[in-house]
Amino acid sequence: MPAIQLTPAERKEFRADAHHLDPVVMIGNDGLTAAVKKETDSALKAHGLIKVRVFSDDRAARETIFQTLAEELNAAPIQHIGKLLVLWRPKPEKERVEDEDRKPGPRDVKVLKFSKRGGQRPEVQVLRVLGNQRLTPGGKVKRAKPKQTSVKKRSQT
Q1: CB-count burial class (<10 Å; 0-12, 13-18, 19+) for 30
Q2: pTM to 2 decimal places
Q3: What's the pLDDT band for 150 if we cut at 50, 70, 90?
């Protein structure tokens, strides 16, 4: 598969985004092995934009590694500076599976209880609110009432 072609403006933007990234794949003396390709592919799937560090001193070998990774993994070569290679590939869309039985999980809520006397600190309570509960303005946890349906809708079903 050919590498992704980018405009110079897009390449410049990706270089700026990659500036603060750390290398996620390291290529040692063995060079470009199947394990390195697999790891680079999984990093591209997870992150999209990655840095690869090559420990070889041969610039021509680093350039061939850069082009080979870009072509075989269908990624865009962004930058080759020193021993660092920057690659980009769009992240695949994640499939969202919606489960009808799934309800919101518990969440911890901090409640401040102020003292009736003036100069004291408020008491902080951490309450666990379940999916079928709600927190009242007074700081109490109440169970949610079942949703009521109208008489007309009940008679139609």
Answers
A1: exposed
A2: 0.61
A3: confident
